[in-house]
TrEMBL record:
Protein name from the UniProt record: ABC transporter substrate-binding protein
Main location: membrane
SUPFAM superfamilies: Periplasmic binding protein-like II
Range of residues in the leader sequence: none
Transmembrane segments: none
Length: 403
């Protein structure tokens, strides 16, 4: 019997590393399927081609399947998210000119979100024009974390600045051409901006919200229902690739693989920055060990509480009305039940719960697992906020007051 052959879409981002490693290092073959990887040019293409069935699976923005299920996409094909592809890996980068103004307003250049946001607020308040920022997609972690950082720093995103959408690889070039003042994107496109366009990294996702989700493997619900064994194999291949990538001894090899023309087509030295946590922000180089977390801390587990946090941001910024039905649709998009079932044969340690509070832990901590306990990372928001999925309506109401 021939092996199933899956078509998979991805964008040239370091976040695609688990999909690429599953293909290049044989984790997919070991799980009984082969992969054909197709590099796309924009998240809109990934969204539409996955919905139309051109791809069996795809690297997706974590909020994207939620948006599809809430009817926020042009082709609202029901989708699921059975496995995540790591935590962190985004940053907010600004032009050299904007950074000069931020530094004069007190930004220290240490990539910490609070001081950088405070300095940006002073610049935005006195600027004779609206600053323009780029994000990669409307329903993206990047849009929501940029808006979160701005709002918590005293900048109202829909009033004080302009936010536009561009594909990730075009953001550094747009900034270099003077069309943008800053952008939020995954690696390596922040480092590319620093190296090629003199940009400065202002802060990182890991400082805005520690150990937070970003990308996932998404697929159509009807395809997943027809192919449950293949879905389980995809989860296990992704899990094994993440486990391999978490080992720091493997990070430079991963960087070398990702640097190839078929994937990122960038120098290995630039690709390695996020994988090693050695981030050159253009002002100084800073060691951020948890800049990208591919496996530790249940990084691949699709927490329903994470789905609800994304939903809360869609409500906050006027994309969808708050309702119990919408919240239920968002939570149902992430499928921890499939994740647990897929990993049961290999006796992996997986969380026992589907939901957990965010913002309440400064350090690593234990949570219940099916066979004992599991260590998660710190989860604080830079403004000290708390997200408890059990009080979702109150959280949404509180954030509306800040929007």
């Amino acid at each position: 019997m021939s092996r199933p052959h899956l078509t998979a879409g991805f964008l040239p981002l370091l976040d695609s590393v688990l999909l690429v490693l599953a293909h290049e290092l044989g984790f997919a073959e070991d799980e009984g399927f082969s992969l054909s990887l197709t590099r796309e040019t924009s998240w809109a293409n990934i969204r539409d081609r996955t919905a139309l069935g051109h791809f069996d699976i795809a690297l997706v923005l974590a909020p994207m399947p939620i948006a599809a299920n809430l009817g926020l996409t042009p082709i609202a094909t029901p989708m699921i998210t059975p496995v995540m592809t790591g935590l962190g890996n985004n940053a907010i980068t600004v032009s050299a000119d904007l950074w000069t103004s931020m530094a004069e307003a007190g930004a220290p250049g240490d990539l910490v979100a609070g001081p950088a946001g405070k300095a940006l607020a002073q610049v935005a308040k006195t600027s004779d024009r609206k600053l323009r920022f780029g994000v990669v997609h409307q329903t993206s972690s990047h849009n929501y974390e940029l808006r979160y950082w701005l709002a918590a720093s005293g900048i109202m995103p829909d009033r004080d600045v302009e936010i536009v959408v561009l594909p990730p690889p075009l953001l550094p070039e747009a900034l270099g051409a003077g069309s943008l003042d800053g952008y939020c994107v995954g690696e390596p496109w922040n480092s590319v901006g620093v190296v090629r366009h003199g940009a400065r990294i202002a802060t990182t996702k890991s400082s805005i919200w520690q150990w937070s989700p970003d990308k996932a493997i998404g697929m159509r619900t009807d395809w997943a229902e027809r192919n449950p064994e293949i879905v389980a194999s995809v989860i296990r291949a992704t899990y094994r690739a993440a486990q391999w990538c978490q080992d720091r001894d493997n990070r430079l090899e991963a960087a070398s693989i990702m640097a190839a023309p078929a994937y990122l087509n960038q120098p290995t030295e630039i690709v390695a920055r996020a994988l090693t946590g050695q981030i050159d922000g253009g002002v100084q180089s800073i060691d951020i060990p948890d800049f990208f977390v591919p496996f530790d801390g249940a990084a691949n587990f699709p927490w329903k509480s994470h789905a609800l946090w994304y939903y809360s941001q869609m409500v906050r910024w006027g994309e969808i009305a708050a309702s119990p039905r919408h919240a239920a649709l968002a939570a149902a998009t992430f499928r921890p039940d499939l994740y647990r079932a897929a990993l049961a044969p290999i006796k992996a340690t997986v969380p026992a719960d589907d939901y957990h509070v965010e913002g309440d832990r400064k350090v690593r901590h234990l949570v219940p697992a099916l066979d004992g306990s599991l260590e998660l990372g710190p989860n604080q928001f830079f403004d000290g906020a708390l997200f408890d999925p059990a009080t979702l309506d109150a959280y949404i109401a509180g954030q509306r007051d800040q929007s």
